[in-house]
Amino acid sequence: MVTDCFLYMYTAARAQSNTVSIAVCIVFCSGLLLLTPASHADEHLKTAAQHDQIVARFISAPFPLEMVWIPKGRFQMGDSSGSGQADERPVRQVEMRGFWMMRTEVTRGMFARFVEDTRHAAGDRCWVFAAGWTERDGLGWRAPGFPQNDNHPVTCVNWHDAHAFIAWLNRKTGETFRLPSEAEWEYAARAGSETVYYMGDQVAALCTNANAADKRALEHYPGFAVNDCDDGYVRTSPVATFAANPWGLYDIYGNTWEWVEDCWNSSYASAPADGSAFLEGDCSRRGFRGGGYGDIPYFLRSTLRNRGDATHRKDDIGFRLVTSGATASNPRQ
Question: Among the listed ranges 20-29, 182-191, 268-277, which one has the minimum average pLDDT value?
Fold first, then answer.
């Protein structure tokens, strides 16, 4: 059975001799209103403190899944700083409808449930970086060449694997999950910001907000222009290890790149202005966004675009889900 819940998180501060912070979770589940004290919602306090209100939707089966509401709005998509790549231009205004986005990347445990149920063949070859990208036999989502557990993001999955997972999950839940468009992904990553990263223009903040190339990565990538810190991980980390962005999304930068729906086009010259996926161009290649665990700060920028053969599986590419629409009980639609 699918259970939908809507979570409203608030923080309040009262200045006296000391500042007292209070967090309350209000959850609507099947028409019931539940008030939860902060002590029962520790995992949400960090997000609640960043944003006055986070609206989350929970689905309990076939595994716990949390979606957060991305509000409607408009934004300037693409690189306006002049430091980006040519394919990040021309900058254009995009009108966005509200949508739900998965709070984390799809995990290895979720993908394992899908494979167990469908016997989907996700291959036994994966592209890995070893002084250059090379495709190796004997690697795949179960064993990408480095240790993982079921709370890590799934890797070594191609665009078609992601679509097969989505088709299965939609049958199981009756939902209409899909991959995000490039516009949806960038809009959600920016979370209302106009800076290089959602937390500003300085790369120093990446260490608390993203699993990416840092001093520890030099063990495997000597000579890289890494961030001057140690985030504790060389490869993938469990999802939601680092801080969420202001709209409640974890790992929107780093950990794994994320497949998007769009066909590849080398500019935004004729891209849709309504936030939908660009389904013309080179559809044998699809986009992916956000950077991965081994990427330098430049590749974690909100506007940075990447692409690859839709059939290729790489050890630093995964995906997350979105679904369209709003609900009558959602106050931010």
Answer: 20-29
| Selected residue with higher pLDDT from 214 and 239 | 239
The residue written with tokens 């997972």 in the block is 165
Give Cα separations from 199 to 26, 58, 73, 91, 244 (angstroms). 27, 27, 19, 21, 11
Assess contact for 136 and 152: CB atoms under 8 A: no
Burial class (CB in 10 A: 0-12, 13-18, 19+), 290: buried
- C-alpha 136/C-alpha 123 separation (Å) is 11
Report helix, strand or coil for 146: coil
Domain 75-324, CATH homologous superfamily name and number? paralog of FGE (formylglycine-generating enzyme) (3.90.1580.10)
Q: Which residues contact 30 (CB under 8 A, 6 or more apart)?
A: 3, 4, 5
Task: Tell me the domain boundaries of the chain.
Answer: 75-324
- To 10 degrees, what angle do helices 159-173 and 108-118 make? 70
Closest CA to 4 of 69, 50, 87, 94: 69
Q: How confident is the model over 65-85, as pLDDT tens digits?
A: 999 999 999 999 999 998 899
Cα 285 to chain center, whole Å?
20
Who's near 99: CB < 8 A, 6+ residues apart? 69, 70, 184, 322, 323, 324, 325
Half-sphere exposure of residue 102, counting CA atoms within 13 Å on the CB side? 24
Per the CB < 8 A criterion, the answer to whether 314 and 176 are in contact is no
Per the listing, tokens 């290649």 go with 285
Tally of CB atoms within 10 A around 271: 22
pLDDT, position 129? 87
Dig out the tokens for 245 from the structure: 């962005």
Local structure of residue 303 (DSSP, 8 states): T
- Taking the C-alpha atoms of residue 203 and residue 296, their distance in angstroms, rounded to an integer, is 10
